[in-house]
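Incident log, support desk, overnight shift.

02:14 A customer reports that sequence design results differ from what the structure should imply. Their input is reproduced verbatim below. On-call engineer (initials T.W.) acknowledged and began investigating.
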């Protein structure tokens, strides 16, 4: 049972038995994500200070170049996840190929793979706008103690055992699901502890926010153009409003709380959309469905798409159920 103000550590321990696989490894895995999130949060928070103080300068203590935050976040998550014996492989938006972790060792019993977008919306860092981290967790499909393979990562979203995101916003939150609803934890930065602030999060069935980069309007499929016009021209009370931050995590988080739909459709510049199926769309789709929302590419459920490559992109329509249904109606009626 989710109890408000419980710490994330307490929540993980208390809910361990309700996980699908109760060995405790998944709990430890979520714990290590919690730790990496705090480290990245600390760095993100002082992003604007680096130039002012020069403290971090151009080189660090080892004489290495000061790293851009998305590279930093990537390293921190990979380091933290690698150190614990839980994960046999990590695929990251920042890495060309997946990273295998001692998976050739026959004594290695690590059964989980993690897919991660270490810093989502990173172009927003320079202008002090919220960014995030997205993660997705699967059980490997190849035998334990053998080298991890591409097929361990190319699993359908419906096979996820857990997924979540961190939003580094006006406050920092970690929101995740293990398939039993969605819970959100807010970081108290003074003591470095996440507290359960948003138990059992759900999308309102309906909403009035549509989130899309309208700068790409001319490029959109006809179904999306017509849907946007429908939102703008709805006669009665004109109930719709547009909100687009440009950080998927933040746009999704707002829509889940207030009710809305996020769209990144295909276009001539992005023939399959821009967002990545494995690091962005599937984890968000899992959270959305667990929160009574919906996610599709306009026709097919996101989590039913069969992945064919690590960095695959798909069109992404996600949010309040009735709004996603409406977009699908428009796609079916007007198509491309
Ligand atoms: P990332 O920073 O991980 O590359 O992701 C950016 C994504 C996503 O967060 C956001 O919703 C989208 O790109 C914004 O794209 P546009 O600037 O094309 O609207
Ligand atoms: Mn991203
Ligand atoms: Mn990213």
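02:41 Re-run completed on a clean worker. Output:
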């Amino acid at each position: 049972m989710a109890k408000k103000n419980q710490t994330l550590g307490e929540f993980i321990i208390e809910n361990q038995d309700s996980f699908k696989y109760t060995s405790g490894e998944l709990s430890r895995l979520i714990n290590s994500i919690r730790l990496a999130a705090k480290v990245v949060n600390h760095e993100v928070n002082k992003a604007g200070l680096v130039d002012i103080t020069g403290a971090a300068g151009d080189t660090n203590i080892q004489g290495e170049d000061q790293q851009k935050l998305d590279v930093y976040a990537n390293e921190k998550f990979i380091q933290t996840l690698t150190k614990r014996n839980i994960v046999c492989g990590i695929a990251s938006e920042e890495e060309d190929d997946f990273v295998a972790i001692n998976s050739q060792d026959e004594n290695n019993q690590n059964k989980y793979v993690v897919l991660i977008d270490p810093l989502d919306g990173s172009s927003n860092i320079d202008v002090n706008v919220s960014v995030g981290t997205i993660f997705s967790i699967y059980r490997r499909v190849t035998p334990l103690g053998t080298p991890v393979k591409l097929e361990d990562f190319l699993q359908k979203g419906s096979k996820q055992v857990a997924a979540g995101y961190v939003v580094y916003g006006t406050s920092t939150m970690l929101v995740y699901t293990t398939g039993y609803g969605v819970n959100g934890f807010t970081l108290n930065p003074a003591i470095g502890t996440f507290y359960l602030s948003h138990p059992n999060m759900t999308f309102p069935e309906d909403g009035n926010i549509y989130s899309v980069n309208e700068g790409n309007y001319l490029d959109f499929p006809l179904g999306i153009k017509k849907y946007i016009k429908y939102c703008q021209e709805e006669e009665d009370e004109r109930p719709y409003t547009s909100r687009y931050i440009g950080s998927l995590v933040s746009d999704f988080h707002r829509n889940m709380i207030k009710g809305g739909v996020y769209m990144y459709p295909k276009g001539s510049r992005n023939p399959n959309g821009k967002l990545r199926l494995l690091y962005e769309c599937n984890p968000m789709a899992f959270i959305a469905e667990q929160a009574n929302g919906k996610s599709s590419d306009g026709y097919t459920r996101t989590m039913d798409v069969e992945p064919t490559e690590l960095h695959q992109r798909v069109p992404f329509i996600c949010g309040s159920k009735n709004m996603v249904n409406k977009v699908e109606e428009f796609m079916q009626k007007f198509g491309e």
